[in-house]
Task: structure prediction
Amino acid sequence: MITTLGAFLAHQEFPAIAAGYRQLLAWARSFGALRRAGVECTGSYGSALARFLSREHIQVVEVNQPDRATRRKRGKTDAVDAEAAARAVLSGRADVTPKTGEGPAADMRVLRLAKESAVKARTRAKNQLKAVLLGVDPALREALSKLTNAALIARCADLPDAGDAAVFTLRLLARRIQQLTAEVKELARRVTKAVRHRHPQLLDIIGVGPESAAALLIAAGDNPERLASEASFAALCGVSPVEQSSGKTQRRRLNRGGNRQTNAALYRIVVTRLRRDPRTRLYLERRTKQGMSKREIIRCLKRYVAREIYRHIQPTSPLDASSSAA
Result:
């Protein structure tokens, strides 16, 4: 706890459970009115605390971990990190409003997390099935090797139990693949339903599918108004160029930060537009004649797409709605 003038008041530790959060709030308010709280890792370990404080009408500010130079000087303890977080909020160095962690975007995040896990497990099971297939009876292997992947899995799932360990493993892996495929389809259906319920207009944009739209909505969160401008959304997606100038040399470099899943979603949208959208192809031809490489053109297009997406995900204020209606 520090005052608005930066004076240190006290330090106390509490268990990271519901009762501990209530004790923390009561302890903090015993010093006076609590205005702001700095929380690290609001998207993972600190998400529950951030939601609890927000419900108590306390402004939560997301705080990054101290840099390495500071940690080398002061060391690493919970007390040192807590005071550094409080001073980062007070100085204005930390001013990012975290995502709420509740709502359709949070639901889409856990659905996509489960879907990606199921896809990885299915791929692993397919590789294991083909590895086991190499050691089975030659006659059975020759009969199965001519089938497509879908037919192979269906055939292996219906193999009779002849007491052979390899055949039993093939049947077990094939049924596991079928179960994981059903999970992937169900999770994809739920993600699509959530996107259509939250922002159906995103799916009308050229090149934007349910998966890409979900990735963009998850990055923006359920409170996209925290993004002050389209430039901040572009930085969040890692498509805003970073200044790297020195002396008379003025240049910009690629932004390697930001949400990489959202960056990949913008890349997929741009690639789809390069194939199907006439305007994008004309832009590609014009920029190519100006001497730009295809990689540089794709970076520019990702920036334009991020600007277009931002206009669709931002909540419309009553003033904007009345002006558009007029």
User: Anything to note?
Assistant: The longest strand covers residues 36-40.
